[in-house]
Amino acid sequence: MYSIGTVAKKTGISSYTLRYYDKAGLTPFVKRDAQGRRVFNDDDLDSLALIRCLKQTGMPLEDIRQFISWCEAGDQTLSERLAMFETQREAVVAQIHESLKNLQKVNHKIDTYRQACQAGSEAAVDCDVISKRSSAELLKQVAAYEIKHPL
Asked: Where does the HTH merR-type domain start and stop, copy by copy (predicted)?
């Protein structure tokens, strides 16, 4: 069993946010001790990781609350949960495509400024032309970057 402070350290979710999630109805699974303090177990940490994931993908708290409610309702809501995650996957894929387009622009500027540094002047390079690459090409570029710059 973990205290709210320990959970905050383990998850990176602040104590304030954990309390907010509780008041917002996102953590009905969290138990309380005899003094009324929240106590978390390992399953709760997994649930918090999922809540954080959904939040980071842009899912509104209201939808996350609905998901939690469906989980508590049991197997009769499996199809609703599946539909929710399929919809969220589409949203994440759209975010990835948008991020890839942004990455392409950032990489273009890096290339431009490298050329300008080598030439000694920004005026010596063509700053306006961005080559168009497919999502697959951009994903390969991201993978190559990750190999060169591991976390």
From this structure: 1-70
**Are both 52 and 98 inside the same structural domain?**
no
In a domain, 63, yes or no: yes
Q: Backbone phi, then psi, for 30, in 5-degree steps?
A: -75, 130
CB contact at 8 A, 41 and 47 = no
- Residues 6 or more apart whose CB falls under 8 angstroms from that of 33 comprise 39
Structure tokens at 48: 């918090």
Nearest to 67 by CA among 109, 24, 12: 24
Nearest to residue 7, comparing CAs of 35, 33, 43?
43
55-68 per-position pLDDT tens digit: 999 999 999 999 99
Residue 25 located in a structural domain:
yes
Q: Which domain holds residue 124?
A: 91-148
**12 and 68 fall within a common domain:** yes
